[in-house]
Amino acid sequence: MARYQQAERLRGVRYDVRGANMVEAQRMEAMGERILKLNIGNLSPFGFKTPEAIVRSVVAHLPESEGYSDSQGIYSARTAVASYYQSFGLDVDVNQVWLGNGVSELISMVLQSMINPGDEVLIPAPDYPLWTAQATLTGGNAVHYLCDEDNGWNPDVADLASKITNRTRAIVLINPNNPTGAVYSSAVVQQIVDLARAHNLVLLSDEIYEKIIFEGTHTHTASLAGDDVLCLTFSGLSKAYRACGYRAGWVVATGPLGQAESLLEGLQLLANMRMCANVPAQHAIQTALGGYQSIDALCVPGGRFHDQLKLAHELLVAIPGVTCVPAKGALYLFPKLSPEVYPIEDDEAWAFDLLRQQKILVSHGRGFNWPDPDHFRLVALPEEDVLRLAIQRIADFLETLR
Question: Could you say which residues of the chain have pLDDT below 70?
């Protein structure tokens, strides 16, 4: 009997955040086990609800959401996005904005529009693994530049520069960073912009966590790229506005747009092919960007995001053999398990054993394209009592390995 194989282009494509261990967690739940999922930054299950004004806006616009919208997105939403970036001094108009079904879809569309087989995309390690997966899926090569744990997980700009070749087409920045929680200084961003300028590279700036800042200040890459470096900036509603399931995101093109006509024509072609983004969710964008920014209260002392990241860090570093750089932004910690204390050879197997023994699901570090099996990502979203219990279970599990 014939066997039906997956397409060759999927070889080497991985997305371990929803990988084999997630499948095992689902199997365990089907058997009646209760699993605490700390593998994905899905806010609603932890009590972070979409602001009511956004929900009301979507509901109010449902009667006019039955048909397809413009393939770039509804005009009012794109205008709101353009105005948002104008408030930071960027020269953006409505025609430079494309709306999508979350940043994830837009990453796919942008890479498809610009990458030929064999082209290289420089992506941080650790990374948000969709970037690596999508670069691979397009036929390109994901080349990982290291972020320096001893320097607050900032990019190692020298390592980045050493990996630029004549096949390099773009540099990906994830700032604030998922999974490390690093917030890059303007000086670091400027160094990366300067490399892009010197080598005629496109900057792909993933800024979905731009409003979730605990320390420091977020710098929009486009604000430093100027008129001569093409920058595509990605953001959306999923994190700052607690609207993960709405799938409402955008990408904004800035810089020498006249020289990017072909690339942007390709992006428009792909936008046309998928008809349009989710129309009801597009109606949330104007309300979100123009209304009360409830995210601010969550990110200062006393706010849940701030306090839970701080608590999780304190609890993790109290475990023998565990170190962790404090998060300056985003929703995650990326702790290190000392190889001298925990000689782990396979971190995916380690996370699997943690799941089976302690009913805690986390993502292993190599799933974020970190080269060594000595890290994991923790989502610090549960309320304090649950977070304490989860990290105590991790501590109990680690004690059996020492």
Answer: none
